[in-house]
Amino acid sequence: MKTPKQLERYFKGLANHKRISILLEVEQNNNLTVDQLTGLLKGNFKTVSQHTKSLVNTGLLNKNYSGRNVCHSLSPYGRLALRSIKSFY
User: Fold this and answer.
1) Residue 89's pLDDT is what?
2) CB of 58 within 8 A of CB of 10?
3) Do the beta carbons of residue 13 and residue 6 sit within 8 Å?
4) Which of the two residues, 32 and 12, has the higher pLDDT score?
5) Domain ranges of the chain
6) Are the C-beta atoms of 22 and 52 separated by less than 8 Å?
7) Residue 51 three-state SS
């Protein structure tokens, strides 16, 4: 059972439309780099990078190193969060 403080961390991680978009893209295309996400979202590299860092820190994304690239995948909590988000569709 998670404490309210732990739950707050996840909800704050989701409290941005760009972060939700990142989670949705990573769900569709696993192991995306920030460069790839920037292209898919037609965003700014620095902004997308900061949002992915936030999502990793909140435990919603995993960061995996592949040579010089850093790839992102959904964590189990990221999958759970997306399932919850999709229930609002």
Assistant:
1) 82
2) yes
3) no
4) 32
5) 4-86
6) yes
7) helix
Q: How confident is the model at residue 70 (pLDDT cuts 50, 70, 90)?
A: very high
| pLDDT reported for residue 7 | 87
What whole-number distance in Å separates Cα of residue 4 and Cα of residue 25? 28
Task: Please tell me whether the overall predicted TM-score, pTM, comes out greater than 0.85 for this model.
Answer: yes
Residue 58 is encoded by which pair of tokens? 């909140």
SS3 9: helix
Fold of 4-86: Arc Repressor Mutant, subunit A (1.10.10)
- Between the two ends of the chain, the Cα-to-Cα distance in Å is 27
Distance of CA 46 to the CA centre of its chain: 15
The answer for 42, left when phi > 0, alpha when psi is -120 to 50, beta otherwise, is left
How is residue 79 written in tokens?
Answer: 């999958």
